[in-house]
Design a protein that fits this description.
The complex is a heterotrimer of chains A (106), B (328) and C (398).
Chain A (H helix, E strand, L loop, with lengths): L8 H7 L11 E2 L16 E5 L9 H5 L5 E3 L5 E3 L9 H5 L5 E5 L3
Antiparallel strand pairs in A: 2-5, 3-4
Chain B lengths: L14 H4 L17 H14 L5 E5 L3 H6 E2 L2 E2 L5 E3 L5 H17 L8 E7 H6 L2 H9 L4 E7 L39 H6 L5 E5 L3 H13 L3 E7 L3 H4 L6 H10 L6 E4 L2 E4 L1 H8 L7 H6 L14 H21 L4
Parallel strand pairs in B: 1-4, 1-5, 5-6, 6-8, 7-8
Antiparallel strand pairs in B: 2-3, 7-9, 9-10
Chain C lengths: L7 E6 H12 L3 E4 L6 H12 L6 E4 L3 H13 L5 E4 L1 H6 L1 H9 L5 E6 L13 H4 L7 E4 L3 H16 L7 E6 L7 E6 L2 H8 L17 E2 L8 H30 L6 E4 L6 E5 L3 H14 L4 E6 L1 E3 L3 H8 L4 E6 L10 H13 L5 E6 L9 H16 L5 E3 L5
Parallel strand pairs in C: 2-3, 4-5, 5-7, 6-7, 11-12, 11-14, 14-15, 15-16
Antiparallel strand pairs in C: 1-8, 6-13, 10-12
Helix pairs in contact in C: 1-2, 1-7, 3-5, 10-13, 11-12
Classes of the chains: A alpha+beta (106), B alpha/beta (328), C alpha/beta (398).
Chain lengths: 106, 328, 398
Amino acid sequence: MSDKTPIDIKSWIREQWGASKLPPGGVVPAPATSLEYKTGEWREFKPILDDEKCTGCTQCYFICPDDAIKMDDRFHPIFDYDFCKGCTLCVEICPVDAIKIVKEVK
Amino acid sequence: MSVTQELPPKRKINLKVAAKIPSGLTGGHRLCRGCGAGVIARQATIAAAMLDKPYVVVQATGCLEVATTIYPYTAWKVPWLHNAFENAGATASGAEAAYTAMVKKGRMKEKPNIIVFGGDGGTYDIGLQSLSGAIERGHDFLYICYDNGAYMNTGIQRSGGTPKGARTTTSPGGRVIPGKPQYKKDLAQIMWAHNIPVFTASMAYPQDLMQKVQRGLEFEGPAFMLTDSPCTLGWKIPDNYGYEVSKLAVETAVFPLYTAYKDEWELSAASRKIALQPHLKKPVEEWLKAQGWFKHLFVPKKKEDVIQSIQEWVDERWERLLSRANNV
Amino acid sequence: MAKVENQEVKGLTGDQAVAYALLNIDPDVVPAYPITPQTIIMEKFSEFWADGLVKTELVHVESEHSAMSAAVGASATGARVFTATASQGVALMYEILFIASGSRLPIVMAVANRALSAPINIHGELTDQLVTRDAGWVSFIGEDAQEAYDHTIIGFKIAEYPEVSLPFMYGLEGFIVTHALEPVYMLDKKTIYDFIGEFREPSNWVFAPGNPGAQGLLALPDYYMELKYQQEQGMKNARKVIPKVLDEFGEITGRYYHEVEPFHMEDAKYAFITAGASSGTAKAVVQRLRSKGEPVGMVKLRTIRPYPDEQLSELLKDLDGVMVVDRSVTFGSPASIQATDLASALLKHRKFPRVLSSAIVGLGGRDITEKDFEGLYEQLKKDVQEDVSRTHWWGVRI
C-alpha cells in the first residue's frame, strides 16, 4: 500500500521538489499545507480584542473567511495574525464593538 | 433513496458547541479579503464535522477551488478532489458509486458524507447537466452552490446567476445596454423540481446555514443548497461588507431563506419575519445601492425603469414563495 | 504459471466479448453512456448486473463527458473502473482524458472505433482513438473479438502497475469487430484474479476518509512541467511493463501478443503497416503474394502509445518501400496519422526504408478488401519505382 510517512512540506517548498520527489498525479497527500503561506502579510488593518467588552457570543468565529479566529475557553477570540488578512468582517459583526482596528505600518 | 423519505429533523445548532469545532477549510488560502465563499465553506464544514460520519469534499473549478489549492498549498483539512469545471456532479457520482461498491465488497466500512462545492458559473451554467444527472441517479451528497453572481475567478464575467442590471466585464454598464439584460435563473426551483431537499442559506445567518447543511447531509440521497456569496471585488463592496450585504439581500427578499422539499415550503426565521410583517421588507434599491456593480443604475442618471423591473422581479418571486410557504 | 488448458469458448461479437471479460473482472464502478457501436458492451454487461452476477456499481451517466468524469471520481477513491465509448463520445470526453492521465488514474476504456462527424457516420474507423494519442493514455488497437476480450484484462494489469499508473484505452473496430461473431476463448474468474488481483491495490493517496490530502490542485508555471514529466516517466515505464505483461498473459492463455507483430518480414522489400481489423485481410493477401514470390511482408501495430519506435524502425530499415494502411483521416498533414508517427520513429533511429507511403482508406466504415491490399501493393511498388513517398486517398471517388 502507499507510503504513510508524513510529507515534509517545508522541505518540499524550500527545495522546490522535482519530478522524482513529487507525489504522482498532482496529489498533495497532506492536510492544510497552506499553513506555510502566511497571508497575514496581506494585512493593512489589524483586529485587536478589547477583552473586557467581549461577551463570548462566538459570531466572529463563524464570520472569518480565513479561519484566523479561534475560541478560548470563554469563547473570546484569539486572532491568528499569521493568517488574518484584516478584512475586518469580525469588527463589523461584533455586536458590542469589542474588536478594534489598528492600522498596521510595515 | 425512498420516495417517501422525509426531511431529517432539524438539529438545533448550539453556537458554543459549534465554535469549538474546527473548520475543514483553514487559513493560508488566497481568497480575497472578506470573501463570502470562504465564510460559507467554513460554516458548512463546521456543520459537517459535527455529524457522526466523516465527510469529503468534491469541488468544481472556481474561486473557492483555485484560491484554496495552489499547488502544493492546500487549505483543506479533509480529503478533497477537484476534476474540472462542469463535472462536479459527475465526479461526485463516481466517488459515491465507488464508496458504495467498496462497502458492498467489504473493502470499506461505511460511506462518508460528501459535500460538493460549486460556484454559480459551475452550477447554473456549465455544470447544470452533470448535477441534474447526478440527482436523477440518486447519489448521496449535498451540493452547495456558493453563488456570487458571476464568473468571478476568471475576472467577473456574467453567468446565468448574475442578477439583472449587474455590471460585469461581459455585460458592462454601457450607454445602450446597462448591465446584464436578463434576469437571474431560478436555480433553486430547478433543483426543487428534481424532488430533492433544497435549502437557501446565507453567511449572515450561520445557525440557519449550519442546520441546513446537516439536514442536507443526513438526507439519504442528493440535496441542494444555494448560498448567497458576497464577492468584494466583483460586487465592488468594501472588504468587511459581506455580512451587511448578505443581510440586505434577505431583508429586501432578493435572497429569501427557505427550505423546500416537495410540498413542504418553509420560510426560515429571517424571511418569515418579513412575510409576517411586510412593512419590514426593504426596497430592492437599498440592496442595489450597497453594491458598486449597480452604480451605473444610479449615476450619472438614475435608471428608474431598470430598477423598477428588478423590484418587480423580486416582488413576483416573493409573492409566489409566500403563496407556497406552509408557515406563513 | 501453467497454461490454462480448458478455456471455455463461446461465439461472441467483439462487444459481447468485452462484456464477458468484465463479467469475471467485476470492476467496482462502470460509468457509461450509450453510443453506437459500443452499445452492446453495456447492454450485455447490464444483463449481468441486473441478474446480480457482478457487484459493479453501474452508473448510467447522462453524457460521455460525465462518464469519464465519474470514472475519474471513482478511480481517485482507489476503485477499479471501466468505461466504454466511441467516436463523438471520445471527442466529448476529450478534456477529461487529459485529466485522467494527469491524475495517474488506471482507468480502462474500450473504444468501439468509429468515424467522427461531420458528416455523422456510425461505422468503423480508427480516427477517434488515434487523435487522443497525446492525452497520455496507454493505447492499444485490437484485430478481433478475442483481442477485445484479452485487452480488457491485460489493460487493467498494465494500467495498475505502480510505475505505470496511467489510464489504458483499447480499440475494437466499429461493426467489423464489435458486431461480428467469432469464437472467443474465455478465462475463469480465478485465473483473471490471479493475473490482475482481485481488486486494485492503489499505490498512491486515495480520495477517501482518513486520507487528508488533495488532488486536482492548480499548478502554476513553477510546478506544472514537473508533474507532466512524471506522466512521461509512466509512459517510459510502460515500455518495459507491456512486454512483460503480454508475455505473462501468453504463458497463461497460449496467446502471445506483442506491441508489433511482423508477418513474412524476412527478406521483405516491401511492407504494409496495419492496425486493427484490416490486419487480418492484409495477412491473407501477404500470404498469397508471398506464395507468388513477391517480397512483401507486413507489420501489425498493436500499441499506439507508447509508440514502439525502436522495434518498428528496426523491422523497416532496409526496405525499399513501406505502405502504412491507415483507416483514419487527417487534413493538411504531411502523411496519414500513423505514417506521421512512423516517420518520426524512423528519423529518430536513422533507419528508414527508401519510400514511406501511406493510404487513407476505409473511412466511415468502407470495406477494405483483399483487392484493396493487392492494389495498394502495386501502388507501393509504383511509389518506390518513382522514388516518391505519397499519401493516397485510396478508393475515393473524385
